[in-house]
Amino acid sequence: MGIRKLAFVGALAVASMSAFYASARAEDVKITVWSLDRDIQPAPNLIKDFNNLKTGITVEYRQIQFDDVVSEAMRAYSTGQAPDIIAVDNPEHALFSSRGAFLDLTDMIAQSSTVKPANYYPGPLKSVMWKDRYFGIPKATNTIALYYNKDMFKAKGLDPDKPPKTWAELLDTARKLTDPAKNVYGITFSAKANEEGTFQFLPWAQMGGGGYDKINTPGAVKALQTWKTIIDEKLASRDTLTRSQWDSTGTFNSGNAAMAISGPWELDRMVKEAKFDWGVALLPLPEADAKRSSAMGDFNWAIFANSKHPKEAFKVLEYFVSQDNRMFKDFGQLPARSDLAIPPTGQPLKDAALKVFQEQLKFAQPRGPHPAWPKISKAIQDAIQAALSGQMSAQEALDQADKKIKAVLG
Amino acid sequence: MRRLLLSIRDGRGFDIGLVSVPLIFLFAMAGLPLIYNIVMSFQEVDMFSLGTFARPFVGFKNYITLFSQPETWPILGNTAIFVVASIAGQFTIGFALALFFWTGFPGSSWLRGLFLVSWVMPGLVVGAIWNWILSGDFGVLNFLLKESGLVAANIFWRSDPNFSLWAVVIANIWLGISFNMILLSVGLSAIPQDLYEAAELDGANVVQRFYTITLPMMRSSIGALVALGLIFTLQQFDLFAAITAGGPNNSSNVAQYWAWDLSFRQYDFAQGATISVIMIVFVMFASVVYVRSTRHEVRG
C-alpha cells in the first residue's frame, strides 16, 4: 500500500510541476533563431543572456552550417517551417527580400530607439536594403586590406612605414620582394572560383570605376590586368587560383609571401603565428587620387515574413543590436557600426590593424544587392580565372562576363 | 478464394509478392526521385517553388539554355576524359596488381587486404591529402618530380588549366585501384586451374595463356567492373570539391560537379536537374552493360 501511495503522490507532484511549467510557458512567446554561429560566437551567447532577462520571450537557437544556410532556409520557408529570425550572408540577402520572404522592417526601425540606420557604415546598411526599404539589420561586418611583412620590407631596402599606395607601386614592391631562391612570393591573395574570388576582385574593379553592372570598363580591365601581371610574373603563386583566402594568408604567416590581401578574421591567427613585424595598409588605388573602395563581408539578421510574432522577433533583434559594443571584445567580430569606438585590446599590432580596417570599412561596398547575385558572381569568377590562367586576355574575359551579367540583369 | 490464398502461400501469388517488395522499394527510393528530377528539368524552378509540384512547364527551354552556354561542351568533354582516363588507369593498374597478387607469394592475401584502405577512406579526406600532394609550391609530387629531374619547374597541378583535370584523375585513379584489384582478384580465382595446366601441356606460353584463357574467362568480371567504374566515376564529386572546385575557369569542371554548383551555389535547380537527366542517360547505358555482363556470369 505504501508504495502505491508514494507513487500516487509522486505522479501528482510531477503532474502539478509540468502543469506549472506549461502555464509558465504559455505566457512566453517562443522565437526561433537560426545562424551559423558556434558556441564561442555571438548568437548563442547573446541568446543565453537574453533568455536570462526573462522578458516573456524565450529564444530557441539552432546552428546551421555555412553551406546549408540558404538551402535550409528556403526549404523551411517554402514548407512553412521557417524560423522567426535568421542570419544570412549579405550577398544572399536580396534574394530573400526581393521575393517577399523577409519582413519589411522599415517601419519598426523608424520607431525603434536602439536600431538607427545612421549608426551603420553605408556598405553593410545597403546590403539589407531592397527598393529603398530595410529588410534586415547588419549583424557584423568585415572587409579586406593589405597586410605586409615589415621585416622583409627592411631586408629589401624598402621603407616599412611606406606600404604601396597605388597599383603600380604594388607591382614594383612585389617585384622587389619576390625571392624565388628563398621561396618567397611578393604577394598572396585569393582568386578562387567561388565567392571568395569575387569578394577579392570586386573592390579592385570598383576602385577602377567599374562595378558588377559595368565589369568591363577600362578601370576594371586594368585591375584584372594588374592581377594577371602578378600571376604571369610569378609575383604570386599560381595556386592563387585555387587557394582560399585563409590558406593564402597562411603562406604570408609562414614567411612565404611578403604581402597578403585579406580581412580582419586573420588577426588572431597572425598574432599567434607570424614571427615577424607586420602592418596593415589600405588597399592600393589605381591612381593616387582615385576613389577608394573595398569589399564587404559577413552576415545580416532578418525576420521571415511568415513569422507569427514579428514584434517579439524585432525585440530580440533590438537586444542583439544593443550588445554590439561587445562584438569585438568578446567575439572578435567587427560591429557594422561607425558610432561605436572599439576599445584597445592591448595587443599593439592588432590595435593598429583594427584602425586601418575601420578606415577601410568606410569605403566597403556590398556585392549587389541583387536577387541573382550567385549568377553574377559566377560570371566574374569565370572571367578572373580565364584571364589569370592565360586562356583569355583581361579585356576578352571581362567582355564575356559583362555579356553574361547583362543577361542576368535583363 | 481458397485458390487465391493458396497461390499467395505457394505459387504465382507468392512469386509476385516476392518480386513486388523490392520493386516497390526501388520505385519509392530510386524511381520517384528520378521521375521528379526529369519533370523538374522541364519546369521553371526557383528556390521558392521548391516546395510545390505546381510549377510552370517550359518545355525544352532548360535544355536549349544549357546547350547555348559556352562552357557546356567543354564540361561534357571533361566528363568524358575524366571517365575514360580514370577507368583506364584504375583498371590497368588494378589488373596488374591483381595478377601480381595472384602469383600467391607469402603474405600476398594479407597485403591485398591492406590495399583496401584507400577504398574505405572518405572522398573528402582523400581529396584533402591529394590537395597537399598536388600543391604547386610545396607539394610532395612536385618535389619528387623535380628531385628526380623529370621536370625543371614546379607544375601547378591544381591551378594550371592544362593539368587541373589530370590532377583529379590521378587522385581518382589512386582511389579506385584497390576496388578494381579486389574485384579482378575474385574473377581470377574463379578460373579453374586445370585450364592453365592443359594449355601449358599444349605448349602455350605465358602471353598466350593470358590472351586465350585469362582474358576470355574474365570477360564478365571485366564488363561488370567497367560498368561499375563508369557509375562510380560519374558519381565522383568529393575530389573535385576538395582539389580544384572545377577551376580554373571550368577547366576541371565535370557534369556531376556542375550540376551541384548550378543547383546549390547558383540556385538554378532546373539547370541542375537538366544536367542530371543527361547524366542519367549515360548511367542507364552503363547499367545495361552491367546487367548484361553479370547475367552472363550467372548462366556460367
Overview of the molecule:
The complex is a heterodimer of chains A (410) and B (300). Helices cover 46% and strands 10% of the residues of chain A. By secondary structure, chain A is an alpha+beta fold. Chain A folds into 2 domains: 30-142 and 297-355, Periplasmic binding protein-like II (D-Maltodextrin-Binding Protein, domain 2), CATH 3.40.190.10; 145-295 and 372-409, D-Maltodextrin-Binding Protein, domain 2 (3-Layer(aba) Sandwich). In chain A, β1, α2 (42-52) and β2 form a beta-alpha-beta unit. In chain A, α9 crosses α16 and α16 (373-388) packs antiparallel against α17. Chain A is globular. In chain B, α4 runs parallel beside α9 (164-189) and α9 runs antiparallel to α12. The relative contact order of chain B is 0.12. Chain B is mainly alpha-helical and 300 residues long. Chain B has 15 helices and no strands. In chain B, 73% of the residues lie in helices and 0% in strands. Chain B has helices at 2-9, 12-40, 61-68, 72-102, 108-114, 117-120, 123-133, 140-147, 164-189, 193-201, 206-217, 219-235, 238-243, 255-265, 269-299. Classes of the chains: A alpha+beta (410), B mainly alpha (300). Chain A binds chain B through residues 67, 70-71, 74-75, 77-79, 95, 99, 101, 183, 192-194, 237-242, 251, 256, 374-375, 378, 382, 385-386, 388-391, 400, and chain B through 47-52, 70-71, 135-137, 156, 158-161, 164, 243-251, 264-268.
